[in-house]
Structure formats: structure tokens, C-alpha cells
Amino acid sequence: MSGPRVVALGGGHGLASSLRAARAYAGTIAGIVSVADDGGSSGRIRRELGLPAPGDLRRCLSALASEDTLLARSLEHRFESGALEGHPVGNLLIAGLASATGDFEAAISEVSRLIGAEGTLYPATRGSVTLLADSDAGALCGQVTIERGSNIRNLRLDPATARTPEAAVDAIMTADQVIIGPGSLFTSVLAAAMAPAVRDALLHTSATRVFVANIANDRGEAHGFGLPEHVETLHQHGIVPDVVVTPPETPRVEEVPTRVSVGDVAGEDGWGHDPAKLGAVLADLLTQSNGPTQ
């Protein structure tokens, strides 16, 4: 397919928004998704089956589904009672295929095929990883614990040598644009970007690296962080974006040591991103990067 090669990385609802946005202008799409979640349904699957967390991958599959089939519509359905209470259908489908085949990545590929996904998804790491971080209250372990923390710093993965699928690294290296975020800074964005091979590829790719800032920030882990602190934290962890996308009236934009693109990208709820608006801004950035030098 002709058109720009776009990679998006992170986790949760933010990455799903970026993938939906990319569908409007990309020729090919790849998502690189954190599998570090240890709460809720994903945490139960990790503990009981020894698999990487499927939840963020499930959300991204829903974002890329091209066929309005019963299966595609059912991925997000959660059981409300019984032994399966709290589990979404998509998590169980991924876990079932991974358990049957012994291949988590093959399970993702098969679900992608079944729903006609317009893009390819890769786990940021090939196996389960645990997030570690430091804070004023001491060492923190696990995504749920870090989400509830404050004054977070020095995020890292355990094991530190966690491997990334080679195809995911190749996608970053050959991309025209890499979208970083939006999402929770430590437990979504950095959780994916801190995989050693991912971070190295982000450093060396010739793609335009775009950090999509959050519309609102009141999660505990980034409490008190403005846009400058978000970008500074990325830099501290070896992630250096070329441009930052942020909504109008974002405070202290002048303090950001990176090019900033201000655009109306907010959804109606005032909390998340509107994929259509975000897609238009991201497409325009690609046009600018491919245009003549000013």
C-alpha cells in the first residue's frame, strides 16, 4: 500500500487513539504495545497463565479492526458475573490462542487476521516484564503501584534485557513517522519505549518522532507535571522527540526545548484525543517534514 509508514507506541487508550488517527493517512501502520500491565484482567492472566499482559493489545486490535463482524464488536465485551467476571472477550481469546499454540505473537497475528486489522501489532517485549521505578517514598514495583505513586523517576524494566520482536525494531527503523503516546507517561508511554531495542531504534531511526501530549493530566504518577516536565522526563529516559503535539492554551509551551505543534486535537469529553483531529495534525506534520527546507 502506498503512503507513509507510521509506527505508534505506548499502551492503553492513548495508543488506541493514535492508531485510529493513523488509519486516516498512513500507508502502513505498526503498533508497538506495552505488555507490562499487572492489574485487572491482564494481571490475572499474567499470574494464572504466565502470559504477557494482553489488555493493551486488545484495545489496539479494536482500534485497527476493519470488519464490522460479531467478533470485532465483541473484543471489548466484559463478563459481568461468574468466574470470568471482569475479563474482556478479547483478553480471553488472545490468552486462549497463546496457551494453545505456545506463541503469544502468533496469537496476536491470528486475532488480527480474524478481525481484518488494518495494521500490524507487536508486543514491546517478547515476554512478561515488570515495571520498576524510584520515588520519594522509595522503590516501586509493578504498573498498578506506579500508577498510584507520585514523584516517579528512573523507570526501568525487569528483566532489563527484555527482548523485542525484530519486526517491531525494523518497523521503527524504516518508518516515516513514529508516534509516541499519548497516555500515562510512565506506565504506558515509557513502559513501551524503555525496552532496550525499542529505545535504541528510536535513537537511530530517520523517522520524525512525534510525542503526542495528553489533553489532561491528573493521574497520580504524573501529578504536577506540565508539558515541560513530560518532555524532560522523556529526555531523562533517552527518548528525544523531534516535535511535540499539544492542544491550544497549553501552559508553559515556551519552556519546551523541542519544536511544538499546537493543534485542536481534543475529543468532546475534554479528556482524550479525537482521532480525526489528531490524524489531520499528524498528517500535516508529515507533509511539512517531506516539504522543502525553509
What is this structure, in a nutshell?
The protein is α/β, with parallel strands linked by helices.
What can you see in these coordinates?
The chain is α/β, with parallel strands linked by helices. It has a domain at 5-36 and 123-290: Rossmann fold (3-Layer(aba) Sandwich). Helix content is 40%, strand content 17%. It is built from twelve helices and ten strands. The chain has helices at 12-22, 40-49, 55-64, 70-74, 89-101, 104-115, 143-147, 166-173, 185-193, 196-204, 227-236, 275-290, and strands at 5-10, 28-33, 120-123, 130-135, 138-141, 153-158, 177-180, 208-212, 243-246, 259-262. A seven-stranded parallel sheet has the order 3-2-1-7-8-9-10, with helices on both faces. The longest helix has 16 residues, at 275-290. It starts with a strand and ends with a helix. The model has no long low-confidence stretch (mean pLDDT 93).
Number of strands: 10
Task: Specify the number of helices.
Answer: 12
Helix content: 40-55%
Order of helices and strands: EHEHHHHHEEEHEHEHHEHEEH
Distance between the termini: 30 Å
CATH class of the domain at 5-36 and 123-290: Alpha Beta
Name given to the CATH architecture of the domain at 5-36 and 123-290: 3-Layer(aba) Sandwich
Mean of pLDDT: 93
In percent, how much strand structure appears in the residues?
15-25%
Biggest sheet statistics: 7 strands, parallel
